Automatic annotation (TrEMBL):
Family, per entry: Belongs to the G protein gamma family.
GO biological process, one term: G protein-coupled receptor signaling pathway
A GO CC term attached to the entry: heterotrimeric G-protein complex
Protein name: Guanine nucleotide-binding protein subunit gamma
Subunit architecture: G proteins are composed of 3 units, alpha, beta and gamma.
InterPro entries: G-protein_gamma-like_dom (IPR015898), GGL_sf (IPR036284), Ste18_fungal (IPR041848)
Source species, domain of life: Eukaryota
Domain G protein gamma: 6-81
Classification via SUPFAM superfamilies: Transducin (heterotrimeric G protein), gamma chain (SSF48670)
GO terms for MF: G-protein beta-subunit binding
Gene this protein is translated from: gg1_1
Principal subcellular localization: membrane
Record's bilayer topology term: Peripheral membrane protein
Localization (cell): Membrane
Length: 81
C-alpha cells in the first residue's frame, strides 16, 4: 500500500502551472499604480525637503549633535547584559 498521490499527467501539470501563472498576473494587475510623472515629482519633492547628512555639498556641514552618522557625544553608550 502506498500513500502517495497518483501521478499527474503532463497536461495536468501544464494546466496547473498556467493557472498559477494566470493568478499571479491577476494579482499584478490588481496592484495600485501611479503615473511616472507623479512618482518622479514626488521623489524630487522628497529629495529637496529631506536633509541628507551624507551630501554636505548640498546641505552644508552638520553639527556633531545633529549628525546621526557621527560618533556618539559621550562615550560608547553600550549596554552589557
Amino acid at each position: 500500500m502506498s500513500s502517495r498521490p497518483p501521478k499527474q499527467s503532463m497536461s495536468e501539470l501544464k494546466l496547473r502551472r498556467l493557472s498559477e501563472h494566470n493568478q499571479r498576473l491577476r494579482e499584478d494587475l490588481a496592484r495600485p499604480r501611479i503615473r511616472v510623472s507623479e512618482a518622479s515629482s514626488s521623489l524630487i519633492r522628497y529629495c529637496k525637503t529631506t536633509k541628507d547628512y551624507l551630501v554636505p555639498s548640498v546641505w552644508g556641514t552638520v553639527s556633531k549633535a545633529e549628525d546621526p552618522f557621527g560618533p556618539p557625544a559621550s562615550g560608547c553608550q553600550c549596554t552589557v547584559m
